[in-house]
Specification:
This protein is an alpha/beta fold and 178 residues long. The chain contains 6 helices and 6 strands; from the N terminus they run ββββαβαβαααα.
């Protein structure tokens, strides 16, 4: 089973509560640029082997149907056997290129989440995790942001308990969270 979602992370810092000397407001200097890194991650759960995995692709532009198809091909190369793919009903998932790919592949079975139900997707907590790790920091360019995100995904891959918490933290029925 694979949970998939796309997202974009701006270079503008995500400011959260932090510590500072009394009476001194913390200041984060940054370049006000609306550049973004787009990402396609998938959290996978193998019920037979009780294995949880994370697969991640980063892009410098907005993700299109072509990038989603490339990511799905990558998943199919990495994971043997059939895959149940759970994702939202976003317009990117209903386009002609995606539908043509899904018709041609017999190993991939797609199920859509109900509309406006991000709390069901075990992939959503990845964004909370990444945004918390990036909080109060800054990246001056896309290369820095991509390197930081790649580092975060590598660390998360080495922490199965963290990946399991993404699945357990979703509002999925208990059968799908085990």
């Amino acid at each position: 089973m694979a949970f998939l979602d796309e997202s974009g992370l701006l270079l503008i810092p995500n400011v959260r509560r932090t510590w500072a000397p009394r009476g001194q407001t913390p200041i984060i200097w940054h370049r006000y640029r609306h550049d973004r890194v787009s990402a396609i991650p998938a959290v996978t759960v193998s019920f037979r082997r009780q294995h949880v995995g994370l697969y991640f692709h980063l892009h410098r532009e907005n993700v299109s149907q072509s990038e989603v198809v490339l990511f799905l091909r990558y998943l199919l190369r990495q994971i043997p056997g059939p895959i149940v793919l759970l994702w939202d009903g976003g317009s990117i998932h209903t386009g002609q290129e995606i539908q043509a790919f899904l018709r041609c592949d017999t190993r991939l079975h797609v199920e859509r989440f109900p509309a406006y139900a991000p709390d069901l997707n075990a992939d959503e907590p990845i964004w909370n995790h990444c945004k918390a790790a990036l909080a109060n920091g800054r990246s001056d360019n896309l290369d820095e942001r991509m390197a930081t995100l790649e580092g975060l995904s590598q660390k998360a891959r080495r922490r199965p308990s963290l990946l399991r918490s993404f699945v357990a933290g979703s509002d999925l029925p208990p059968l799908l969270r085990s």
